[in-house]
Specification:
By secondary structure, this protein is α+β, with helices and mostly antiparallel strands. Helices cover 44% and strands 26% of the residues. It starts with a strand and ends in an 11-residue tail after the last helix. The structure holds zinc ion. Zinc ion binds next to strand 2 and helix 5.
């Protein structure tokens, strides 16, 4: 029986090298683990990101999961696709693009007379 805990996703407001996210697993509440990360006693990657001045946010948690789930999630290499903060930013950009497209458009379509 594998140990259950919480899998969590961290979002780096400023990407560190190529990393914009960190996925981890903890037996303690995610907020406690987060405090360790921010103080530099968590993973080296998060420590480096914080040290480089990036704001690190806890954006998602999955409770009652084991480390296999953590690994499976990491191996998908799609943290950006599941991160609510990145998705919100993506949707905002898509909305703006759509607005610009409509602003410059002129409809030349005419219903054909019967
Ligand atoms: Zn993100």
């Amino acid at each position: 029986m594998s140990v259950k805990g919480t899998v969590y996703l961290l979002h780096f407001e400023t990407p560190y090298k190529h990393a914009g996210h960190y996925i981890g697993w903890t037996k303690t509440p995610a907020e406690e683990r987060m405090a360790l990360h921010v103080s530099g006693r968590g993973s080296p990657l998060v420590k480096a990101a914080v040290g480089a001045g990036s704001n690190v946010l806890l954006v998602m948690t999955w409770e009652d999961e084991d480390r296999h789930f953590e690994r499976a999630l990491r191996e998908r290499h799609n943290a950006k696709g599941i991160c609510p903060k990145c998705r919100a930013a993506y949707n905002e950009k898509a909305r703006n693009r759509m607005r610009e497209t409509r602003a410059n458009a002129r409809s030349v379509y005419r219903e054909r007379a019967a």
